[in-house]
Design goal:
The protein has 373 residues and is α/β, with parallel strands linked by helices. The protein has 16 helices and nine strands.
Length: 373
């Protein structure tokens, strides 16, 4: 094992941790035509889970498509990215790509741009007029390809909440649903890193995607699964770490998947033979230092009341913010401010509310940084 932990990428293969029940449910949904929405805060492993399940769908009856919506800043970019990914990932030959585009995108005159590896790298562009039928033509691509090939198509859209940034975002969502809900041979899976936006899309009765599919609320991977994983990966590379220190790594990072792997990695490369408390301390310091600029920028954008609220959450207060002693200690002025502050912090993607209504930091390292500063 060259690298026992993974950073900045989806956890695949040896780096993927369990999630047996989540995998079973998602696999069943996607292979039985149930649209699925996966909701959780950032860095909890949504992308890794979806890619794991797509790899496990080893069945000739299915074609799978993975689309990252994050870089799409407009409807046009979404349509172009959607068409490119659907054509590229449901076919394997250049001739078939071009044939599919010409056959099913006849009204928009598609143009191919090939990269350095023309067998794998291309993108589409087209003259697009939002007042003709080009939108529906593009959104219908998966169903048309499924019908032509006699297979089912599974389309997964990562960072789906990005469409909230488009102009006329609600109208755009109406366009998507009006086409997708009638596709009998296509299953959609949508997930994203902004929990409050995703919940609004799919839980709000006034939104177009209300009740579009099965909603999966992803949980953190349990500490009892992380600890043996960390210890085993140290051991496999000729180093050792105690279960107690592995557990400490998990608690510092609140079992948030990407941070567990990153802190474990820093601890690992600092360890010659056996990890110690001092080494974990240094690793935590390094991780905070790496994120310091980001944390400072986030803090500078907060009002005094908002920062005081975040201090309270960092000190372990997750409910009861309107209590007199809390208002006084953290200078929150009055209980009337609390809901407005919470809403603002959620829109900034700094906090989320748990099932019991308790407020938690989205980023456990930011929480630790606030405590220390």
């Amino acid at each position: 094992m060259d690298n026992p932990f993974i950073i900045g990428k989806a956890a695949e293969g040896q780096y993927f941790i369990n999630r047996l029940e989540d995998r079973k449910r998602l696999h069943a949904n996607l292979t039985h035509g149930i649209n699925t929405i996966i909701i959780s805060p950032r860095r909890w492993g949504k992308t890794s889970l979806v890619k794991k399940v797509l790899n496990e769908i080893d069945d000739e009856r299915f074609l799978t498509v993975f689309i990252d919506v994050f870089r799409c800043k407009s409807e046009y970019e979404f349509y172009r990215n959607f068409a490119t990914c659907v054509i590229k990932q449901t076919s394997t030959k250049i001739d078939e790509w071009i044939e599919t585009a010409k056959l099913f995108l006849s009204s928009i005159t598609p143009k191919f741009s090939f990269g350095t590896d023309p067998l794998n790298d291309f993108s589409l562009s087209f003259e697009w007029n939002e007042h003709n039928d080009s939108e529906e033509e593009i959104l219908s691509l998966p169903q048309k390809i499924a019908a032509k090939k006699g297979k089912r198509v599974i389309v997964c859209l990562d960072e789906f909440q990005q469409i909230a940034e488009f102009s006329s975002a609600v109208d755009f969502q109406k366009k998507l649903r009006s086409v997708w809900q009638h596709q009998q041979d296509v299953t959609y899976c949508m997930f994203g890193s902004k929990k409050h936006l995703m919940e609004n899309f799919f839980s709000n009765k006034s939104m177009p995607f209300f009740k579009f599919g099965d909603m999966m609320f992803l949980r953190k991977i349990d500490i009892n699964e992380w600890v043996p994983f960390i210890c085993r990966n140290f051991e496999n590379t000729g180093k050792t770490i105690s279960a107690e220190l592995a557990e400490r790594i998990c608690r510092v990072t609140s079992c948030q998947s990407s941070y567990v792997q990153q802190l474990a990695w820093i601890t690992w490369y600092k360890t010659e033979t056996t990890a110690t408390d001092k080494i974990v301390d240094m690793a935590v310091g390094d991780l905070l230092e790496q994120n310091k600029t980001f944390f400072q920028r986030e803090t500078e954008q907060l009002t005094e009341l908002q920062f005081n609220f975040m201090r309270a959450v960092a000190d372990g207060i997750s409910q009861g913010f309107s209590r007199k002693e809390v208002l006084r200690k953290y200078q929150l002025e009055s209980s009337a401010n609390i809901q407005a502050i919470k809403k603002a912090m959620m829109s900034k993607d700094l906090i989320y509310t748990d099932d019991d209504g308790s407020v938690q930091f989205n980023d456990p390292l930011f929480c630790l940084w606030v405590k220390r500063n």
